[in-house]
């Protein structure tokens, strides 16, 4: 039976695409923007916005093909339609989601690519040259994101091995989290590395937009207006909620008072962790996943980071990286064909081998992302230079890099 | 002529302003400042790390007055800004050499 376009699926996927766009612009932007010093707010917001633009352009020139087109040796896709030539004109349906147009699948996937790169910015804020970031985005997108996304989602070798990543635990969170770590080691510790958010209100708005948009991210990854989408939406929300509650509990136990930033961070940890599992697990699993992940991330951020001493300014590794790892492993444990008949399931479904595949993916993707990101960073550092002059860092990036001020209050 | 610089709790500004108005002292300049005396600071906590913040928000009120009115003004401020707890603030009085009213160019005590 030939696939035909479903207007219900297409409508939902159009909305999901828009939801995920909202997550980057301005979700992540605002979330990060509230956490840094007021003199750097515009630069911080800018990093997310400019990332979205660069990825948007490159994706439709060659990016979509490199990830999703005909597989070459399990490593990368062939660039069969540069500049997306003919695809829109043909009205072809997607081979990955046969009830929606190929163009729609492509633009939906573009939003994932964009947010993955934008997430990394949170680690290097307040001290990275804008020109260095402009060079970083296309290089990382092409050399790190595209191969990894192809391996996991585009029919590449990890996909062929049976790895499960519903909406991006490996492709988005692990890859960006580990990349953040590599960049942080290169760009160095800020002169003022204290976390004193200048406007937590922005972070609240950012988190709200992220949570809202995440329904597009996870439920949209069901690729249709289906039961699976509903299931994904519910477990996503459950994990977020448990994540928030767990972090609030950790705050109370460790520092005496529940904090709003803690609540927001916990929700995001919950959301990020459920991402690879959203279409494979049930509510009970989601409760556990959200709770456990938030606690681990809490300690990664409050104890591990100060212990090792790296300046991952906004905890991209501590929250996204860690969540990517935990969530990907959780899939190996909690995935069940009762939720998604297309899979064999994980440990609880009597298929412990899945956990092994997940672990392999984490190790390989983690190493790949770290090493290649580090190399990219080194090349940029040797040519353009990664870090701003000390004087600019102290005075603030908005005035020095952009000749703008975030708060001209008169 | 004297300059009276007073640092008070921000929530006391309305009371002090009202009371000064009642004794005929209308002119003033008000600034929001941060500072400390012997009042201990507060602790803020972000992602599990505590930060001591010991410069607390205060309000600084500056008044220039004729020497004979200073005592009345000081008494009014003290009575209305006082809570009895550490952190009530201070008043500093210093001499003023000259006062000029910009609108008319008047000088001296009449320009206050």
UniProtKB/TrEMBL annotation, chain B:
> According to the lineage, what is the superkingdom?
Archaea
| InterPro entries cross-referenced by the UniProt entry | N-reg_PII (IPR002187), N-reg_PII-like_a/b (IPR011322), N-reg_PII/ATP_PRibTrfase_C (IPR015867), N-reg_PII_CS (IPR017918)
Q: What's one Pfam family the UniProt record gives for this protein? A: P-II
Residues that bear O-UMP-tyrosine: 51
GO terms, molecular function: ATP binding; enzyme regulator activity
**SUPFAM superfamilies hit by this protein:** GlnB-like (SSF54913)
**Keywords of this entry:** Nitrogen fixation, Phosphoprotein, Transcription, Transcription regulation
An annotated GO BP: regulation of nitrogen utilization
**Assigned GO CC terms:** cytosol
- Record bears the keyword Transcription: yes
Which family does this protein fall into? Belongs to the P(II) protein family.
List the PANTHER family: NITROGEN REGULATORY PROTEIN P-II, NITROGEN REGULATORY PROTEIN P-II HOMOLOG
Q: What does this protein do?
A: Could be involved in the regulation of nitrogen fixation.
Question: What is the protein's given name?
Answer: Nitrogen regulatory protein P-ii
Please name the source species: Methanobacterium formicicum
